[in-house]
Amino acid sequence: MISFRKTVKNDYLQKVLLWLSFGAFALGLLFCFNPKKSAWLLEIIIPFAAALILCSLFAIRFFSISRTCNEKDELLCEIHNLSDYGNAYNVILHYRKDGRSYSKSQAIVKNSETEGLRNYSVVRAFCSGRNKRKVFVKNLYMDSDEKLDLFDEAPGLAPYFYNDGRMLVFGGKEYILVADGHRYTFLYKDKEIVMVIEPDVYLKKNGDKLLLWRCGDEIRFECVDIPGLCGSFSSGEIKSFYDDPAEPECDAGVLFRIKEGSESFKEAVLSIAKSGSYLVPELKEIGCEEKILFLARFLPDENQLNRNDVYCAVYECDFASEVLSVIPLRWFNEGSIDYGTMDPVRIARLKNGNFCLSGFRMLPLELDPAFNPHF
Hints:
Elements: H1 4-10, H2 12-32, H3 41-70, E1 74-84, E2 88-97, E3 100-109, E4 122-127, E5 135-137, H4 138-141, E6 156-158, E7 166-170, E8 173-179, E9 185-189, E10 192-197, E11 201-206, E12 209-215, E13 218-225, H5 235-243, E14 254-256, E15 265-271, E16 276-279, H6 282-286, E17 292-297, E18 312-318, E19 323-328, H7 330-333, E20 343-349, E21 355-360, E22 362-366
Antiparallel strand pairs: 1-2, 1-4, 2-3, 4-5, 6-11, 7-8, 8-9, 9-10, 10-14, 11-12, 12-13, 13-15, 16-19, 17-18, 18-19, 20-21, 21-22
Helix pairs in contact: 2-3
């Protein structure tokens, strides 16, 4: 059921209408109780009439949202073109409905619930059955135990998900992670670059550490204790990276400086595996405290071959128990999907047990339970 409190708090148009109606009502009262002169009839009627009209518009907006949300016609929307206007975000919601793609501009109030929104965030929304361009983000209007951004805790792929920059805290100090929009992603501390990340590297914050890995013929994990970094990269070094795009090259695609003999850096290399679960002692050496879920290639059996010769699996790494699980992504491998058209790069497990995918040249989707990976 729609929450009146959340609706008024998070809907930008309703907040404007409410404040304007309060202002008009206060102006009417001011004229009524003006001790210096007798208030004219029009001076009293006009503000109160304006307040009544604004309250009516507020009620129409509220019941319009309520009717759409009560239809329970849910879909997933991906946020693009996020602009910060101080008190509100302006975003473009991209979604797919009844086989067609839509985009809708929407203003979202900036508060503690929405401050984590960024480009490529995926949110759950309700769509009107009468007007496919009428959508409302579910968590802004209804009480829900689901996160606003369904991929809030999912690994990000550099540089594509970091062009708008992110503030991260390591060791009580602020760092800025931002991509240059072309090749490299940089980690800044006090305006100095302390880490350079090449393209197609996954990132996941883990306490004061940053877990990074690249998926190719093998999966190379690197776990870096960020407060333990020493030294930075000069502007001349950064320029040389651009002048010679072949350099620098490193196996994991990450460049940083640590003291010799320091334990601020750990790594593990895993081979691309067949489907199944494996005991991998090297995982424990990474020191990561939580499970991670990501997409990578796998070695198919004969009965898993497809026409694209591209095979995608869901990898779950449980670092504490040293277990690696590889589950083929049947939706991708068994469907008539052209890899050149759709390339899933992110996966998240939802509260209802289903899985959500997003990626390049595709809008976010929730997998049918028949295609869910089973760990």
